[in-house]
Amino acid sequence: MRKLSIRAPFVISALLASAWSPVTAAPSGDAVVIRAGEVIVRPGEVMKDVDVLVIDGVIRRVAAEIEAPEGARELSGAVVCAGFLDPWSVLGINATDVSFTSVTPSTRTADAIDPFGQEFQKKQALEAGVTAVRVQASHRALVSGLSSVMSLAPNGDEGLIASDETALGASIGLTDPSSGGSSFAMGADGSFTLVESGPTPMDPFERISQVDKIVGLLEAGVAYRVSQNAYAVDLKEWEEAIAEKVKELEKDFKKAKKDRDKEIEEAKEKGKEFKEERYKEDKAPKAPKYDADKEVFARVANGELPLVVEVHRTAELRNLLEATAKFNRLRMVIAGGTEAAPFAKQLAARNISVIVNPSPMGEGAFDEFDGHDVSLAATLAEEEVTVLIGSGGRSAGASRDLSLLAALAIGGGLEREHALAAITSGPAKVFGLTSHGAVEFGKQADLLILDGQPLSTTTSVQAVLVDGRVVVEPKK
Questions:
Q1: What does pTM read for this prediction?
Q2: Same structural domain for residues 35 and 160?
Q3: Which of 97, 120, 225, 275 could form a disulfide with 137 if both were Cys (CB 3.0 to 4.6 A apart)?
Q4: pLDDT tens-digit profile of 38-73?
């Protein structure tokens, strides 16, 4: 995976300006007031006939009849809500890095992001209300490295990455598209016919062994963190012992100097050489060798980073849930979860979120998607599982359809509020994006102005703000 290198800010600013024609860059200190018939503060919490004041990219007030500051831009619309966040995307990642598998746990997806590529797909996603995406490269790797959250309308190169190390990605049992091939089949008349075979599903034993490998890496992370903690304790004890010894030596300094002078004098009288008694200090404890990959798994096992595992089949799901139950701080997220419905109660009890992709699956879908059902989101939500909706982490252009996927989930029985939460406040909470996902004081102003209720097939996005800037202009 190539490393993103930015060495000429003035060139990047010029390129961004030309690449993002719909973005109107607001200078620092700009203010925007949105007059709304309805503000969805967060799914289930609505305020009627209020205004939203945005200054310096941050929401400052949500109240009735806000007086616009001098020079502020005023917008209006029927409904205002938070920008949509795709929690399972590859939009903006270099195409070669999407399927690249030679990665390590500490590999960063941020280094695979092309800030100037896929402009058309990004523009389409923005116009559909998607303001940010969680991107994960190397989706088929057993451990695919650290994902990032990317803004679709960055305010300069510094605003591109909203969250650098958002979660650790992993996958179990995914079909390799390059597997399969061709062979000759002999007919009844003795002739041979070339037969093309599609991708071959992964061997069941290999799938289960992948669960064991991930658990082994988690255990290695725990052991690594234990060694770090033990070293910290030993180091503190050593430092305290040294400090105590220094105090003791300082206290006895005068007597020790007098005794030393006396010994020197006696040695002279006897014509002997005086030998200084050397002070032997206990050696400092040795720090454990740093290991970047074990450090990542230590953070994951300790709950500092979520672990997003794409897994679909019943056998792998069962084994994964059983094997990880002992890691009581682990924040696991299931991506896909095609056959997760029977585990809904267990998922809810362990607070394991599921990112579903309710895309229609036709002929040609891989083996792991055989049980695909657009009602999965509703089934899981009924058991109080936190459901997120993502575009599937395969196609860069799929993020533009995020609201349509949410609408499909609603058609499959998911409540509208849950569907909206699944692409706004839900991803923000699961992935620690504290400044996103709601329309309230102090949040980043990633906002949508709509002409109707969000996720309705008759509603259009009228305007989009990212970081307080109007990046999709109001439709006339």
A1: 0.84
A2: no
A3: 97
A4: 999 999 999 999 999 999 999 999 999 999 999 999
